[in-house]
Amino acid sequence: QVQLVESGGGLVQAGGSLKLSCEVSRAYKMTTVGWYREAPEKEREEVGLSTSFGRASYAGFAEDRITITRNNAENTVYLRMNNLKPEDTARYFCNLDARWGPGTQVTVSS
Questions:
Q1: Cα–Cα distance measured from residue 5 to residue 31, given in angstroms and rounded to the nearest whole number
Q2: Calpha distance 60→55 (Å, rounded)
Q3: CB atoms within 10 A of CB 16
Q4: Low-confidence residues of the chain: pLDDT under 50
Q5: By three-state DSSP, how is residue 7 classified?
Q6: How far is residue 110's CA from residue 98's CA, in Å, rounded to a whole number?
Q7: How many CA atoms lie within 13 A of 45 on its CB side?
Q8: Torsion of CA 86, 91, 94, 98, to 10 degrees
Q9: What is the pLDDT of residues 73-86, one digit of tens each?
Q10: Contacts of 84 by beta carbon, 8 Å cutoff, 6+ apart
């Protein structure tokens, strides 16, 4: 059964950057992996997707500030966020085949 572990979150000032990682269990084939976020009192929303061919798609709010890449050899998908804003404060999760990791917290101070 696949396991996912996110890392790289933390506290950052507005305008800063972070790179999150989603590590997928080694024996599992990494197909489409999604990044999502959940802010307090809000529903979980999609940030973007990474296909097994390395293509990425992004939610409208993320398109100009976020890049999703992957390293298939390391079974890891990355989410880089630039020019962070306080409204980006949320817990960030990755998803593969309906399985979720525990998430990593991102807090952006103004």
A1: 16
A2: 16
A3: 14
A4: none
A5: strand
A6: 34
A7: 14
A8: -130
A9: 999 999 999 999 99
A10: 12, 13, 14, 15, 16, 17, 18, 65, 106, 108
